């Protein structure tokens, strides 16, 4: 299958290498030509995983987004949610009927990206897929090398608009067979693990992160007190899902840490593989890191605002969001991905279901 991978960073490079190794025809686009130079010169990416290390050729490595998107079936952009709107603007002139845009995970980026593409005058019928997590636990080792510690074994995913689910998930599943269908994109957004796992880790590890040059939030940073907060936060997420009528499985994060529980998104022993790799012992610039800017400022703010609309108490999420706001000197509750900012706070439950199923009228 012809797949375009849009963006740089860990997840994009992991996807490009892994999918190319599976036999898909991969075009990799990145805006920054200098950052792309090593891969372009090599004609591919060096992939490191549990089976060893090897050079994976790519069909096309380009800074021309029109070239990257030409005649492609699946467009994969596993970038942070903070980059989605800019990517939508860049892609808008080149998107065509039937293409599927996969943004794992999404933080309701499907809605904002769709609006941007429509405002640019593109009326193509497009399907947007969001998932509960990235398909890979991965880290770049150099400009042309990526290490994959784990791949998803269960990837809950929903489509916007939901009426295109059969078409979109058939195409996305050809690349990611681990996909498990969800009812719609909000179902998927409320499955997003990032705003659950990362806010407690960075906010409750803020001291050592700012003291030490490198810190592993998933190893030394994952202590019983932090796990207790994570479980309480995840309980609030599940309560919101249930209040909105979404059914189990809810993929509780506790499953990720305990192999005696049902298999989580990355399968059993994924947490151990992540910590054993050493790839997450890194410098985290607290105020600017994607865990703050994506998972707190966008993801957690979205969760708190949906809870307010649904009438579900979420004291842990609200407290963590206030902590992040205080650290950064910003009110994240007024950010760009809240229910109010997205223009959804005035919707009835029935109006919301219609919008999620049919999409918005241009």
What does it look like?
The longest helix has 21 residues, at 290-310. The protein has an 8-stranded mixed sheet with strand order 5-2-1-6-7-8-11-12, sandwiched between helices. Strands 4-3-10-9 form a 4-stranded mixed sheet. A two-stranded antiparallel sheet has the order 13-14. The mean pLDDT is 95. It is globular. The relative contact order is 0.11. 43% of the residues lie in helices and 17% in strands. It folds into 2 domains: 2-189, 3-Layer(aba) Sandwich (Rossmann fold); 194-358, N-(1-d-carboxylethyl)-l-norvaline Dehydrogenase, domain 2. By secondary structure, it is an alpha/beta fold. It has helices spanning 10-21, 33-42, 65-69, 84-91, 109-119, 165-175, 185-189, 194-204, 206-211, 224-243, 254-257, 270-277, 290-310, 315-328, 349-358, and strands spanning 2-6, 25-29, 44-49, 52-57, 60-62, 74-76, 100-102, 127-131, 136-142, 145-151, 155-160, 179-181, 215-216, 281-282.
Key features of this structure:
Rossmann fold; 362 residues; single chain; eight-stranded mixed beta sheet; alpha/beta
């Amino acid at each position: 299958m012809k797949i375009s991978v849009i963006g740089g960073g860990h997840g994009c490079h992991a996807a490009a290498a892994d999918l190319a190794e599976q036999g898909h025809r991969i075009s990799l686009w990145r805006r920054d030509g200098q950052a792309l130079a090593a891969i372009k010169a090599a004609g591919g990416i060096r992939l490191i995983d549990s089976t060893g290390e090897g050079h994976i050729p790519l069909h096309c490595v380009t800074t021309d987004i029109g070239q990257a998107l030409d005649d492609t079936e699946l467009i994969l952009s596993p970038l942070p949610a903070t980059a989605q709107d800019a990517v939508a603007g860049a892609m808008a002139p080149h998107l065509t009927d039937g293409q599927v845009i996969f943004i794992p995970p999404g933080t309701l980026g499907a809605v904002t990206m769709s609006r941007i593409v429509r405002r640019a005058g593109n009326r193509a019928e497009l399907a947007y897929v969001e998932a509960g997590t990235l398909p890979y636990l991965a880290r770049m080792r150099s400009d042309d090398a990526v290490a994959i510690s784990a791949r998803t074994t269960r990837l809950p995913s929903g489509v916007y608009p939901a009426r295109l689910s059969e078409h979109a998930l058939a195409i996305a599943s050809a690349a990611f067979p681990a996909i498990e269908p969800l009812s719609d994109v909000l179902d998927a957004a409320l499955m997003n693990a990032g705003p659950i796992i990362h806010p407690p880790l960075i906010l409750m590890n803020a001291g050592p992160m700012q003291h030490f040059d490198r810190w592993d939030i998933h190893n030394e940073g994952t202590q019983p007190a932090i796990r207790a907060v994570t479980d309480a936060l995840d309980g609030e997420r599940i309560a919101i899902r249930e209040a909105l009528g979404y059914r189990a499985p809810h993929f509780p994060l506790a499953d990720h840490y305990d192999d005696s529980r049902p298999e989580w998104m990355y399968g059993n022993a994924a947490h151990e593989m992540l910590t054993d790799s050493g790839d997450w012992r890194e410098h985290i610039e607290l105020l600017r890191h994607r865990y703050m800017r994506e998972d707190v400022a966008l993801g957690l703010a979205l969760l708190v605002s949906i809870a307010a609309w649904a009438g579900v108490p979420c004291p842990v999420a609200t407290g963590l969001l206030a902590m992040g706001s205080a650290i950064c000197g910003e009110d994240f509750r007024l950010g760009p991905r809240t229910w109010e900012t997205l223009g959804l706070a005035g919707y009835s439950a029935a109006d919301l279901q219609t919008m999620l199923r049919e999409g918005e009228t241009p």
